[in-house]
Amino acid sequence: MPFSPNPYAALRSAARYVRQFRRKTFVVLLDGTVIGDPKLRRAACEQIGLLWAFSIQPVVVHSASPELDTPFDTGSPITGRLRTDLLTDLQAAGVPCVGLSGVDAGLLKARPMHAGTSGDIESVDTRLLQHLRSGEYVPVVAPLAGDPTGAVHNASADTVASLLAVALGAEKLFFLLTTPGLLRDASNPNSIIPLASLQDLAELEKEGQLSGNLKPKAHAIRHALEGGVGSVHLVSGTLPDALLEEVFTNEGSGTMVVRESPARGAGGST
């Protein structure tokens, strides 16, 4: 259900969630398609800006644009431009952001492999993130990791977002996608599942219902929830204000995944 046309009613309804989530950490992963489209990217940044204005503490992780052949190419001018555009749009939305990668200050360390390949993350050091957050800056993290040999590796943005959410004790982890959420039928966008447990997720995966980029997210979701993150949300990055609706309304807009299924109390509150 969308926000009420009465602005005061909408404010009263949202106020309970503003109070509940004030000073809480939300990790938000932006899908490559979202950051690659200027209109969608700006809309996502404006929503993150509103979270920030309400004293919610976002940490942004971004994957690469589908324009790239590799998950993330540090030498690509396309990647560099899109990253700069993302930071610029966040700044325009009032977010005092700082761009960094997992290589900075040893934030993410990978097992030694061939340089430029995807590497498994073996440790997370959040001291730099905590330092930035204590100064009221919002970290924007690229999914790269260094190994002890000095090589740099691509890492799964899903994995990075999940690891950071656990390490930071995040209240929520959001995946902004090109789909409206988790679907019972991948071919039917209206078959959205508003609430799912880890058991539901496993059953959908077993049935082959997790298609496309949702399948690799299942492991990241499981790791986040088992690591203490309150809930994981699969939300559209293409529908207007879907992130805000998920956080600040009782019905939500996408799919909330929790360890075990209670009655869904809110799109963002449970």
From TrEMBL:
Gene Ontology biological-process annotations: L-arginine biosynthetic process
Annotated keywords: Amino-acid biosynthesis, Arginine biosynthesis, ATP-binding, Kinase, Nucleotide-binding, Transferase
Occurrences of domain Aspartate/glutamate/uridylate kinase (ranges): 24-235
InterPro entries membership: AceGlu_kinase-like_sf, AcgluKinase_fam, Asp/Glu/Uridylate_kinase
Pathway(s) where this gene product acts: Amino-acid biosynthesis; L-arginine biosynthesis; N(2)-acetyl-L-ornithine from L-glutamate: step 2/4
Superkingdom field: Bacteria
Catalyzed chemical reaction(s): N-acetyl-L-glutamate + ATP = N-acetyl-L-glutamyl 5-phosphate + ADP
GO MF, one annotated term: acetylglutamate kinase activity
GO cellular component: cytoplasm
Enzyme Commission numbers on file: 2.7.2.8
Protein name (database record): Acetylglutamate kinase
Natural source organism: Stigmatella aurantiaca (strain DW4/3-1)
The encoding gene: argB
